[in-house]
């Protein structure tokens, strides 16, 4: 995995805000109209739309307009970027802690 990824950076930036994380969590239950989503948050619709655009521009959600209703759909595949990065970090740190444990329990390397 590349050390620097603009796509991964964008996903983390989008998920850094609690409102956007709540929208992602809500869309995990299924597609929802922007109006229904916005009612759950104490802010104006234009302010809420900024959050929707951030999520959409970073690929976490897609929106589909049908008549006057814009519906948001979670792009679950985009969350795989975060899963992959976290799995890599977990593997790296587990390897380090395993070596530290081995050093602490058997500093002269006499373990079988």
Automatic annotation (TrEMBL):
UniProt-listed InterPro entries = ArsR-like_HTH, HTH_ArsR_DNA-bd_dom, WH-like_DNA-bd_sf, WH_DNA-bd_sf
Key word Hydrolase present in the record?
A: no
Which keywords appear in this protein's UniProt record, sorted alphabetically?
A: DNA-binding
Location of the HTH arsR-type domain? 1-94
Protein origin, superkingdom? Bacteria
List each coiled-coil range.
none
Sorted alphabetically, which PROSITE patterns does this protein's record hold? HTH_ARSR_2
What PANTHER family does the annotation carry? SLL0088 PROTEIN, TRANSCRIPTIONAL REGULATORY PROTEIN
Quote the protein name from its UniProt record. Answer: DNA-binding transcriptional ArsR family regulator
Source species, please? Actinomadura citrea
What is the organism lineage in this UniProt record? Bacteria, Bacillati, Actinomycetota, Actinomycetes, Streptosporangiales
């Amino acid at each position: 995995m590349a050390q620097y990824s603009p796509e991964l950076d964008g996903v983390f930036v989008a998920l850094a805000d609690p409102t956007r994380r709540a929208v992602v969590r809500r869309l995990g239950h299924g597609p929802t109209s922007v109006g229904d989503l916005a009612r759950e948050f104490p802010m104006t619709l234009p302010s809420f739309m900024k959050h929707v655009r951030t999520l959409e521009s970073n690929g976490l959600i897609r929106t589909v307009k049908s008549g006057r209703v814009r519906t948001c759909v979670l792009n679950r595949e985009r969350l795989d970027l975060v899963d992959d990065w976290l799995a890599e970090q977990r593997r790296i740190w587990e390897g380090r802690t395993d070596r530290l444990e081995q050093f602490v329990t058997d500093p002269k390397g006499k373990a079988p």
